[in-house]
Amino acid sequence: MSLNIIVLAKQVPDTRNVGKDAMKADGTINRAALPAIFNPEDLNALEQALRLKEAYPGTKVTILTMGPARAAEIIREGLYRGADAGVVLSDRAFAGADTLATSYALNAAIRKMGKFDLILGGRQAIDGDTAQVGPQVAEKLGLPQVTYAEEIIKAEDGYAVIKRRIESGVETVKAPLPLLVTVNGSAPDCRPRNAKNVQKYKYAAVPSEVASDEKKKALIAKRPYLEIGEWNCEAVNADLQQCGLAGSPTKVKGIENVVFTAKDARRVENTDEEIETLVKELIANHTIG
Amino acid sequence: MANFYTDNPVLKHYLTHPLMEKIVALKERDFADADKYDYAPQDFEDAIDSYDKVLEIVGDICGNIVAENAEEVDHEGPRVENGRVVYAEGTKRNLDACRKAGLMGMAMPRRLGGLNFPITPYIMAADIVSRADTGFENIWGLQDCAETIYEFADEEQKQKYIPRVCAGETMSMDLTEPDAGSDLQSVMLKASQKEDGSWVLNGVKRFITNGDADIHLVLARSEEGTKDGRGLSMFIYDKRNGGVTVRRIENKMGIKGSPTCELVYKDAPAELVGSRRMGLIKYVMALMNGARLGIAAQSVGVSEISYREALAYAKDRRQFGKAIIEFPAVAEILSVMKAKLDASRALLYACSRFVDIYKVYDDIAKERKLTVDEKKEAKAFSRLADAFTPLAKGMTSEFCNQNAYDCIQIHGGSGFMKDYACERVYRDARITSIYEGTTQLQVVAAIRHVSTGTYLDWIKGEEAKECLPEDQQIKAILENMTQQYANAVEAVFGVENQGYHDFMARRLVEMAGYIVMGYLLLDDTKRNEMFRRSLHVFVKLGQAETTKHADFIANFRPEQISDYLFEEK
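The joint structure predicted for all components is written out below.
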């Protein structure tokens, strides 16, 4: 049985090698000073997708990313490693999106993509560290979700069996397909680029990247697999009010540099009473609300 | 995220050598594959860009996986379980990465699943892999045994085995036996033909690198009653058929991750490659030439890591209030190491380009008749490849041993401890001047080209070229060295005494080596300023060495050889 898998990926500034000029004076990220990379945990997700492709011949892996046209770089990176196709969701209207608006846009694009069996994504992106987008996309699509996955053991007969990392070890869960899974950084590293794929896909591009290059345009017309999808707001029938800044309830009040001092973790039992107590506490000290 | 290709601009310099345009055009048959394979290049720039991008993958895997695993692999090593080799865990991870990246069968044609790379970018990959883990280069680099299948086996065998190599199966060349090391004519492993025409092998092989490989090339005695090289044939043994077990693996000084096996053949089914009796005299000779170029690449990788480890330590280590690199005695060692490294690489890639051209003509000759000019060119490059291969193997392996020695010297007492990579590098380096023919045997192969003038002809060709005005003085030194060399050759070969020729052979070959490498660096400097320092340092070194040899030869009387010969007291 072959699968149709969508991998959600994000191009992020490489915050692992932060220098002095990583932040601008206004407290926002100085993207020019940081190299743009494939979000590391999204690569873990891609590896899981590629393993499923090996286990279930005929499986198609499509990478979906939202960002400017240059985010096509990570689609190419995915093609080099074994993905089959990619789409960049790109529109000025998507700019300034928080997690809610991002998951709305991704959900609109996924609806346009049609039938799928699995959506995989990294647990979180290293620039925002929210871990919200995956779960929100699942909610918007009305899908079950499994988070913190380390290994997708199988995906057949309408179910996926997944090993997930939990605080005290691992647990193996079974969930019905279609399904959204977010993959943890403790999952196996992504395989390297493949020599044949690199040679095959090195000219792959979104239309706007080659707009003024007739030679490349002609090549892409001749070899359709080189065209990376480039969808705007209209193409995915997204409601402008729910996109970008307009669709983002998150407002940044200010940013300050803080030195993180780790404290002991506190464990909250998974009961209504305990969670209610915690939420009230967080509201009282203005962490949320 | 280390990348052992992009951090080394010297590799790109050779990838873009002017002769590459000819090599690529021939190899790609004017880009005939472009519409047949989605990964085939469309023109020269596209091809070079593809090599560049694939080497970037090699650099990534080597920098981030293979080099990271090297120490652990060196400590753990492979083991034998129930007659089979189990690689160290790190070796398995390295192989897995190389397979997934499609870096096996790189030089094989596309129709058999390969990347159709010329030898030069393939050798670059070997150079990079060796820098990361010299022992792993053996396992990975044995893919070039596929070249022998491609050149000499029949179409059915090519179709059967080469795609498997390209998909990641490993290879070995089973030549050596307990009583047949340098002297392969003494091979005794028995090949017997059954009534149905098929062959089985019986006997023992020793010192077989990666001896539990999936696909073996085996040298065996097919002609009963014969005792010399003309009774030997080449066979393919497929591990899937069974019949060969690993009796033990050697506990070696270096390249510990690479299993060196003793193999027992018991009625092991095998397929004959090519014609009977041609095993040693034709096929092994071709196999060895390829392997020697591979060892030269491995040696350059060793020189590279030696230099880098030494440089990093010398910058970091402080004594008497400053970094030790600031002391002239230390800086001099480093600059000589760098000069030997750069000169080695210059020779390696000059050689690989020659091999590329003559081999591709050989291949084209199977498809169509070569023109008179092409034949002439093929012959000229074949002769150069034949001359440069032993020179490259000999010089680069000796230099990498010297560099590994100096690397430890720079580390001082710390280098003698197991704490730094340099001690592993030192042990790994040692085999390069021994296997695939010792340096002494490289001299035996190279001396013909001293006496017949191959080196001198090439050198004269270089001498006739213009150099940059600022390098005129260096060129004058090289011209002077050439004169010393020509005089020494005349002096030695002017005496009718084979023993005397043999006695002086290494000195003459080394003189040729220094001059050839000097001219290569001169040419590299013309294209790129970054070689100028090494050019100066290397030519000064070469001048001193050729003068030393010239003096020795001039002041030696043939009868003095008796002082050096072994006599039972």
